[in-house]
Amino acid sequence: MSIDQSTAAKVAKLARIKVEDDALPALASEFNTILGFIEQLNEVDVEGVEPMTSVTPQRLKRREDVVNDGSQQDKVLANAPDAREGFFAVPKVVE
């Protein structure tokens, strides 16, 4: 796949990046270089390779998944501009 200048301009527009017309050839070239690297990665055989979270073997810290209310309702609501009955109060937006 190759990126031309019109496609590079479209990508820049979608990304909300202002790119001058004279910079489009360089941007298209950079996109093509990136796509070339991705194609190289797709050629690598990863069959049987375990996913890893780090380059050094280590065990991640784990905790038991317990649902609780956080026991901090008063502290959280102390920062609210308007709180009523234990909840944040917000202006009504739908009539």
TrEMBL record:
Top EC group: ligase
Biological processes, Gene Ontology terms: glutaminyl-tRNAGln biosynthesis via transamidation; regulation of translational fidelity; translation
Keywords: ATP-binding, Ligase, Nucleotide-binding, Protein biosynthesis, Transferase
SUBUNIT field: Heterotrimer of A, B and C subunits.
GO MF annotation list: asparaginyl-tRNA synthase (glutamine-hydrolyzing) activity; ATP binding; glutaminyl-tRNA synthase (glutamine-hydrolyzing) activity; transferase activity
Catalytic activity: L-glutamyl-tRNA(Gln) + L-glutamine + ATP + H2O = L-glutaminyl-tRNA(Gln) + L-glutamate + ADP + phosphate + H(+); L-aspartyl-tRNA(Asn) + L-glutamine + ATP + H2O = L-asparaginyl-tRNA(Asn) + L-glutamate + ADP + phosphate + 2 H(+)
HAMAP family in the record: GatC
Enzyme Commission numbers on file: 6.3.5.-
Gene: gatC
Protein name: Aspartyl/glutamyl-tRNA(Asn/Gln) amidotransferase subunit C
Any single Pfam family the record assigns to this protein: GatC
Superkingdom classification of source: Bacteria
Taxonomic source organism: Falsiruegeria litorea R37
Family: Belongs to the GatC family.
Signal sequence region: none
InterPro entries: Asp/Glu-ADT_sf_sub_c, GatC
Job description of the protein: Allows the formation of correctly charged Asn-tRNA(Asn) or Gln-tRNA(Gln) through the transamidation of misacylated Asp-tRNA(Asn) or Glu-tRNA(Gln) in organisms which lack either or both of asparaginyl-tRNA or glutaminyl-tRNA synthetases. The reaction takes place in the presence of glutamine and ATP through an activated phospho-Asp-tRNA(Asn) or phospho-Glu-tRNA(Gln).
